[in-house]
Design a protein that fits this description.
heterodimer; A: mainly beta; four-stranded antiparallel beta sheet; globular; B: mainly beta; five-stranded mixed beta sheet
Chain lengths: 116, 109
């Protein structure tokens, strides 16, 4: 399958600072990218959907000013967690999909964020 | 988005077929059924997807009932490395993949 690379794999930051997570599709053009987060022993929760060159669409309850998403090219999307707090500590996962009605989405390996 | 219902957990003996069921009784005509799995602390891995017909690839087979209200993922010869949480997802409007709780499959020696 196609490869989606996420960076960094893990990060520790101080409370109040911002953290940027990158998601790259390595061998295909991702017209749509998705960002999820996952708390321990829970399922993935969709945070937002972004299309290249457009503003991201956030799911209900997700603060768009706190979780900044940029999808400036067909191979790169970034998620910036601004003014991080300990409750933002989670596993963040991106997913990328090319065009087409039945096209599958591929996932990155995830980023473990710990805010101290 | 159509909801899916899966058993929370299942066991399977190594080398035997693992049959994972999924109910999606409210699926609409143009929605696909996708299966992903997640091994602990990793991103989900795509397995297979289908619309109406049964599908098979190198990883698994997907059997969709004629009324499309349920499906079964079949791992023909389960190995210990197949131990994971398996998610059945109906792809909704805009192509979003909404994850339910999935089935935790334990393959035992």
């Amino acid at each position: 399958g196609a490869v989606v690379s996420q960076h960094p794999s893990w990060v520790i930051c101080k409370s109040g600072t911002s953290v940027k997570i990158e998601c790259r599709s390595l061998d295909f053009q991702a017209t749509t990218m998705f960002w999820y987060r996952q708390f321990p022993k829970q399922s993935l929760m969709l945070m937002a959907t972004s299309n290249e060159g457009s503003k991201a669409t956030y799911e209900q309850g997700v603060e768009k000013d706190k979780f900044l998403i940029n999808h400036a090219s067909l191979t790169l999307s970034t998620l910036t967690v601004t003014s991080a707090h300990p409750e933002d500590s989670s596993f963040y996962i991106c997913s990328a999909r090319g065009g087409g009605g039945g096209t599958e989405a591929f996932f990155g390996q995830g980023t473990r964020l710990t805010v101290v | 988005d159509a909801k899916t219902t899966q058993p929370p957990s299942m066991d399977c003996a190594e080398g035997r077929a693992a049959n994972l069921p999924c109910n999606h009784s409210t699926i609409s005509g143009n929605e696909y059924v996708y299966w992903y799995r997640q091994i602990h602390s990793q991103g989900p891995q795509y397995i297979i997807h289908g619309l109406k017909n049964n599908e098979t690839n190198e990883m698994a087979s997907l059997i969709i009932t004629e009324d499309r209200k349920s499906s079964t993922l079949i791992l023909p010869h389960a190995t210990l490395r197949d131990t994971a949480v398996y998610y059945c997802i109906v792809r909704g409007q805009g192509g979003k993949l909404i994850f339910g709780q999935g089935t935790e499959l334990s393959v035992k020696p």
